[in-house]
Fold each of these.
Amino acid sequence: MPNTLDFTFSDLVAGYVISADPENGRFEMNTSDGRPFVVQLTPTTTAEMLRNLGDAYVDATAQLTGMLEHGRLLHAYGVFYPSDSDAGTAFEAKHILLFGKAADELKFESPSWWSQQIRKLADFYLDSEFGIGATTFDYRGYTTDLTMEGAKTATTRQETDTISRLVYGLATAYLMHGDDRYRDAAAAGARYLIDHLCFVDRTERIAYWYHALMLRPDGTEVKIFASEFGDDFDAIPCYEQIYALAGLTQVYRITGDPKLREIIDMTIAMFHRYFEDKTSYPDGTPRRGYYSHIDPVTFDPLSPALDDGIRSNRDRKNWNSVGDHIPAYLINLFLATGEQKYADELESLCDQITEHFPDYDSSPFVQEKFFGDWSPDHHYGQQQDRAIIGHNLKIAWNLTRVNNLRPKAEYVAFAKKIAGLMPGVGMDPQRGGWYDMMERHTAPGQRFHRLVWHDRKAWWQQEQGILAYQILNAVYGDPLYAKYARESSAFYNAWMLDTQAGGVFFNVLANGNPFMLGGERSKGSHSMAMYHSAELCYLAAVYSNLENRQQPMDLFFSPGPGAFGGVLRVAPDLLPPKTHKIMQVWVNGHEHADFDAEALTVTLPHSTEPQQVRVRLTPAGCTFSADTLGISAGVARISLAGSLGANQVGVLRDQVDEALDGGARTVVLEAGDLVYLDPEAVRYLATAKQHRDFQLTVTGARGQVAEELRASELDQELARSTS
């Protein structure tokens, strides 16, 4: 017989106020997916305002009933009571969290929110590892494990990836604030990684990384080469080598230190020599991709030693070995150098992801584990035939970024597919936030995909949801993407921040309460440190300020003498072309005029000392631009750049109308810098041609833009002119 809810339980309801009945102390709210809840207030209900790291508690209990305006986003935590009638289950709120004073205010959308958060994160880790207010940073005293309060544990273990994650976060904090303390600590960590945890083989011109080291009481070191973790045990996993570069690359991005670049390049050479699959299928087609593991002795991905009867890492590939290159170091390395070989690698990896990871005839989730020939592996380790929600979201996020650099219709289609499916299967529509691992398939009679271990929510998977939907909204302008970005940000900032001790929680329960058992109690465990939380602060600020809310943003760099060949590249991320520019530059506190605003480069003055460069970036005005270059002999040339979403069609219409009113009988749209074309814009062009009888030519169209134009079949002339 079915289970019945005849007991009380506490839970969280996240959603939007629909109506209020102050006299009876209740209001109605809808969850993200539109389900109504009646919320009863009690004499002991308390309310507070959202607070960032470093903020004091602000009570809002006395003002609560007057703040229950229609449309307000809030979180209500309370007790469900089984009803004695047919009226349904009663819900009495005990705690209300408000996100702003005004109904439409969301504090986490203020321009300084994420900047403040990363400063507090950086201070938490520096104070915990090196002492409060430290200005010198000896990593011999660093420890991987930190307690919930930020205290060091007794272990003397130091893990490469955890130090690298911390170094990334500190360098990113410098990028946002220009505080020398953050730069110095990041640079010291990068040097320590190279000196103590990196094996440099100059004969082979490769570098690779130890898993960890143990510090003995006498100061000597015990190096640990092969991984000691779970499914990776006694092998060299590709993802550990990848994340060793995250910190170095971010420090290189702000300093241009050639010693860091050498080690980065030598590690990449190791990827290509030992992890890259250079074999072919029987028909001669290259298999491509990166193996997930290599033998620690022979560096052979096909070594029998990788199949020990307990686990098998022989001839395997996975999301981490293929996709994690993109956000961990490759995009940042391209931003720092502008070298096309890194853009080529980004495109190659995204091509592999787009070709092999979709599995939508079988499941709403991507396939993540593979054999070497890319056939699915449904029985690997703990994952089996299961999905990690954050990896699905991470694919959508990174495909959208790379599409801004190398537009391809497949990237747009795949990213949008994920964005459309994930809220229905991986998001918690009742409480907000994103789940962890789920079964990729439902059993007969099951409505919901089953959660594998628990219904907890990890901090890094919330990051993927926020960044994915923020950039999707920035590029494609879909109100649903804006909604999911907002709701994801609300959950993260409401429940993942430890506003008492500092830092962020590793995991929270589905209802937002912290989960504090085992390794998930730590704030310095192998996978945590500062990487994901700092990456979120930085890119959420970039996407929300420069793209979605049109706010300027300052970035800081500290190039050494001769760094970057004298040309500093300051693009904040892979954003649509010509959507932002340099507004102002200061070098060592003095205004500096030698920069290319649109190319996002600064020509550095000659110096024998490191310089501090402060760059103010500003939105170009909109995410899409249409500029008439001129009208000659009845031909108007209009340059298009950015992302032409449905909400930007009016910008195109104004330029076309102005050209036709000015005597043009042919309109040439130059689309080389256009990364997205909404079908509504194509329908406008078809209608305009019909009504105003002019010739239309499009040049330089790529990726989704070219595909959308081909699919429109406006006329043969248009089809021939795309490329």
Amino acid sequence: MRIPQASSRPSLLDRRLLAALLSLVLASCGGTEQERVDNDTLGTEQLAASVPLRLMAANITSGNLQSYDPGEGIRIFKGTKPDVVMIQEFNYGDNSATAIRTFVNNAFGTSFYYYREAGAQIPNGVISRYPIIASGEWDDTQVDNRDFAWARIDVPGPKDLWVVSVHLLTASSSVRNTEATNLVNFIKANIPTGDYLAIGGDFNTDSRSEAAFSTFSSVVTTASPYPADRNGNTNTNAGRAKPYDHVLVDSDLRAYQVATVIGGSTFSGGLVADTRVYSPIAEISPALASDSGATNMQHMGIIKDFLIPGDTTSAGVTVTSPNGGESWAGGSSQSVTWSASGVTNVKLEYTLDGSTWTVITSSTSASTGSYTWTVPSSATTAAKVRVSDASNSAVTDSSNAAFTVTTGGGGGSGTVFINEVLINEPGSDVNGEFVELVNPGSTAVSLAGWTVSDAAGLRHTFASGTSLGAGKAIVIFGGASAIPAGLTNAVAASTGSLNLSNSTETVTVKNASGTTVDTVSFSSSLTGTDGVSANRSPDASSTSTTFVLHTTLVSSRTSSPGVRASGSAF
């Protein structure tokens, strides 16, 4: 076990003084003081009782120079918002202090700290939201172009966090175990047992049964659950066949691990950040779906989240809805919700472009936790809501990711939305798949040129002259043969099929100008029942974002294309 060093550990006050002095030193060298700058901002000198901590291991360079210059990795960092990164191949520009500071500022923020080992061809390093109060490198005897980079970080609460960034050799599993043995010896000799510990990076391990994991298990936990991507794949190399990359923490920190939540998505064991399969990709904007497939990007970023005890219990706010991924109709009434502690009144604001903020209300009671808001009638995919302490703007939080505001288009007050989708057709006749759209407004909406797509591509384009009447529905079937006799408000998919997936699926409606009007992602619980549709609940409600199996609404009916769930006409 690690050797206790209680006598050498500074007190909380001493550490705060040390951090302050370090900030002054950094400022004199072009550094900046640490403060939260993203969605989880807390008030100055105020920390919540429990503090979120996101750790990331990242060897996500691309291009031909083992560098972050091409920008794909930078976008992934921006989209996933880690607090502490154990980074490999830490190269950017000419690698001068100015270039590295520019990279950190761009990818994380001007208030982040960093340590980068010197004299290495592909250096390891650490980037941190919180002050790095000590750092250095330990010799990796098996390789001559990098070492083990470590940092001691003053995270909130009574313990420090020690992190080690590693890049083990591809040579063989025995060489990697030698590296692991040497690192464990460094850790036992230098890191107090009472502090938190994380080892992260590119291990280049072919499997989780390699001896290196048994060696590491003397200081960190190597057991499951493991981080996974949107499809449940826990492997991390470019081909997604081997577990190359890891974030391993000691039992002290493991006790505080929580699910990784981004927007409306939850990853119980942490996230393998593969943008090629992440959906909806807007949750990790500005990352692009193509980023993880960039030239020479051979690894995926690995994320684990923790909720650690903070220093004190004081003021804090957290937006709970809209928190990213929602689709709200312009002109509809929606509830903005939040949680708050130590705050009397809150100020609510929204943005439609991610940068310009407009006040919803300058002050409303924080204890209510909810405010009814009339959504502006401007279509956008970049909307967010911000909640702040009305008397202290430093205590603030905004939506974790963007949400969508839809408009009916075509004039009038019509608002078109997806109401019912039959993804898993009855039997094997895929012509029976359908998507039902509803206009609950008071004016007809022209659908000419509008499109319906699934996760794989375009499935239907509405013909010129198509209109959806006020309060009416229209249904797109996979094929004309499946349209029920007498159902006049129905068309066959213009591409010849809908071809919806019976595992998970996303259906998107766009108007003639290409603006997203509504998009809904369906989990396997809504796609896996043969012949039973997924229906908005309550049925035909423009303000609801919840979908359930049709039999949950009306037990005797498996679907209701073109009519209400009860069978009555629109």
Amino acid sequence: MENLLYSLPFRLFGIFLLMGWSLLLGWKARSPDSRPRLSGRSILGLSFVLFIGIRLLYAPDREQNVDTSTWIATALTVGKAENPLSTLLNYSDGRPLAVLPLAIAELVGIPLDYRLTDFMGVLLWCLTLWLFWRILKKYLAEETAVVLVWLPILIISTVFNHDFASYNTEIMGNLWLITGLFWILNLSLRSMGSVLALGFWLGCLPFVKFQTVPMGLVLGLFTAWKLYRTRRFTSVPVLVGAALLPVLLLTLYYFSQNDLESFWGDYFSNYFVYSYTTQYSALSTGDRFSPVRIVRYLFHSQQLTLFWVGVFGGGLLGVWHLVRRPVFRSTDQMERLWLGTVWLVASFYAALQAGNNYTHYLLFLVFPGLFLLAVLYEIQGVATNWKWIGISLGLVVVQASVNGFFRKPLPIHPGEPLFQAVSAEIKQRSQPDDGLVVWGYVDRLYVYTRRPMGYRASDTFWVYYPTSTQPFRMKEFLADMERNKPLLFVDAMTPRISMFADDAFEFENFPAIKTYIDRQYQLVKTIEDVRIFERKKKERNKL
């Protein structure tokens, strides 16, 4: 099947299909009353069918990105837990709401693999894009709004930069943000209850992904401004209080568990160190936000270059046209123009602040860029905006065509035979509910074996990597090992299969951990340079 999918005739067929559909969308945006007589809703629905079909065809049942393995491991651990809520809160790397859809699937008995997880990600994309289309069509023609939604579909359908396309926390982060924006712009905020609910929704963003907080603050400030402008002064403190409520509730929960230290360490301290220090990236603050780095970051993947040119180039063209030929702008248009601008700046800040050029961070730039483009199209009016849409669409179609032509299958990891051998040994020596801990950064072993995590992280990177949070992480690791008493401890600290492998990170170099493993576990199998330890029988009898 893979040979057929990546054969030149099939790839060309896919390119012509996407080009043909793109031409139809552009034609309908130019002449909405022309044939075929399809509504904007119908065209969008067919676009989603095409999107889902292409992604299903090309979704491999292999790890596209290590983060996907992390979230599957978390979800299956929640699905096997005696207390799913506590496990979701503690075993999700501080992002329980990002993992929630996958955890629900496991809880209702749907075992996740990579292909199914990718499919769930595509469905979440469709929901996000549908809400975004609902926002845009309030200000633009339905057909024009469909074209803007089609631009990211084109790229996500054809990109084979798997860090950008695979299931990751940015998918739920964008869904949460777009739902909040839809709520703000499309629904009434007249009742105090709706203000309370919106504030609570935005306040949940840190538990989707901490990186979404700057964008959430922008949406919250925009909501407060709208309430202030309509003289609903008493609703503003309600909005603020509701936004703080999720943090307060989780604080009370962890206080009741006598575990506030974990709440602070897992949800906040670690991400502060990650984002605002040089412990995980040597770039200074100035270098992180320098124009040179921004350009390099945007264009370091050749599979995305023309997409960003189409979106941001179209936006710059719109700004230039607006300055050159000023037109009347209503108060609502000016509000949305400022909202789009500040939202985009906040998204750039969120993507750049950690100093790491991970491609999936760029997903946060998609929607503010398109929203700002839509506002500029709206201000200029129908007479000129179709030309800009044609330019943006044309550039993205070219990029998608290039991606489709050069699309290649996901390479098999060189260590795959070792992955399989270790996984087979783990499954032979344990039962489906027996806990597993892997020393190293090899999250896919949880997915291959479908064994739950015995430590609250699917890898031990945070434990062995030298940062200011290491003492806390080491204490947490030993506490989890003693509490959960996982049956197997696998030392996979080898560059053949583990990311960031280094001799300095071997568990024997950490006396407290070595002492615990020596006392509680015995070596039962060595497969090449991977060691499998099993909990001693006398220790298991104490369970």
